[in-house]
Amino acid sequence: MVVITTFPPPTEGIRHQEPNIAAHIKSKDLGKGTLYIAESRVSWVGESGQGFSLEYPSITLHAVSRDLNAFPRECLYLMIDADLETNDEEEGQQEENERTVENKTSEVRFVPENTGVLDAMFKAMMDCQALHPDEDDSFSEDEEGCFDDAEDDSGAEYDVAAAERGRGQGDGSVGDTYYDEYGEPMEVAQFEDVDPDH
Amino acid sequence: MASLRERALSTKTLVCLLQALQERETTVELRNEVSILGRIEIVDGYMNLTMTDVTLTTPNNEQQKYESFFVQGKQVRFVHIPDDINIVEAIKKQLNLIRGRGQYKERKQHKKALAQTLKIRQENLLMKERQQESS
């Protein structure tokens, strides 16, 4: 969860740092501050020293908004996969009930004074997002080993025609070695589950 | 293509099909019921999508426009495949692109050269053996 608090700005892995950025959470204007797009998180520190940090996995999407009908200023738009807490308690109380039923998403907008930096901000965030792939993805953990041969499988593409030719020439028993279109030897056994009439 | 791991994901999962949609305009539906119409620019190995000229439609049917757009792969629920795309062909083409035939041929030639060297060495050894036997 993201809580607005006083904290020092990140110092490591900063990809983009931009002063004079107004931050808006939902419709709440937090005033001006400095935006730090670092490899580990996105942080914004206001002029009063208060700010917030967003972790990349919680940033569903980010986009450059130049549509002034949607928002009156050109900005970097972030959709957050979490409920952002503001320290505004009154508002917090009122929204408490709605929050439990609503989809837990929040919107954050970073409005630069100079709109020319938007593309650089977008790019920096995009690069950092790529550093944080989904950790729950089954491929990330369970099947780690299945990628070990990734570099060497270039010729191992399955070719039906070659397999058929192979079957025609040999008796098709397990262990017979045939050659695919690149002259790579391949085991017949790997085609056993293929229906030749298919 | 960035990392080896990303490359592996691209070739061993259907991410390669989505990569075949690069530079095409289509609709992407997200897990939070948001739908996005725009041009797909980049699909990385983790299915992260970078798009341009996007119209985002919220579950409440509100529309917002974005010039550049990035969405996490894990948020993607559906990607609409345009009707004119032949899925099997698109996958094959993309795999060939990723694997880089040129690079493959180069490695192949290297393998051949290596085999040739080994063969010559073996022949030389045999000759020496025979010479020793006869002498």
Automatic annotation (TrEMBL), chain A:
Q: Which Pfam families match?
A: Voldacs (PF03517)
Q: Which InterPro entries match?
A: ICln, ICln/Lot5/Saf5, PH-like_dom_sf
Sequence ranges of Acidic residues compositional bias: 134-156
Q: What is its main location?
A: cytoplasm
Keywords, in A-Z order: Cytoplasm, Nucleus
Localization, per the record, is:
Cytoplasm; Nucleus
Q: Where is this region: Disordered?
A: 134-180
Similarity section? Belongs to the pICln (TC 1.A.47) family.
State the function annotated in the UniProt record.
Involved in both the assembly of spliceosomal snRNPs and the methylation of Sm proteins. Chaperone that regulates the assembly of spliceosomal U1, U2, U4 and U5 small nuclear ribonucleoproteins (snRNPs), the building blocks of the spliceosome, and thereby plays an important role in the splicing of cellular pre-mRNAs. Most spliceosomal snRNPs contain a common set of Sm proteins SNRPB, SNRPD1, SNRPD2, SNRPD3, SNRPE, SNRPF and SNRPG that assemble in a heptameric protein ring on the Sm site of the small nuclear RNA to form the core snRNP (Sm core).
Q: What is this protein called?
A: Methylosome subunit pICln
What gene, per UniProt, encodes this protein?
LOC106466386
Automatic annotation (TrEMBL), chain B:
On the tree of life, the source organism's domain of life is Eukaryota
Under PROSITE patterns, the record lists: SM (PS52002)
Q: Where is the Sm domain?
A: 13-85
What InterPro entries does this protein's entry cite? LSM_dom_sf, Sm, Sm_dom_euk/arc, U7_snRNA_Sm-like
* SMART domains referenced in this protein's UniProt entry, alphabetically: Sm
Please report a single Pfam family linked to this protein: LSM
What PANTHER family does UniProt report for this protein, alphabetically?
Answer: U7 SNRNA-ASSOCIATED SM-LIKE PROTEIN LSM10
Name of this chain's protein: U7 snRNA-associated Sm-like protein LSm10
Gene name of the record: LOC106478717
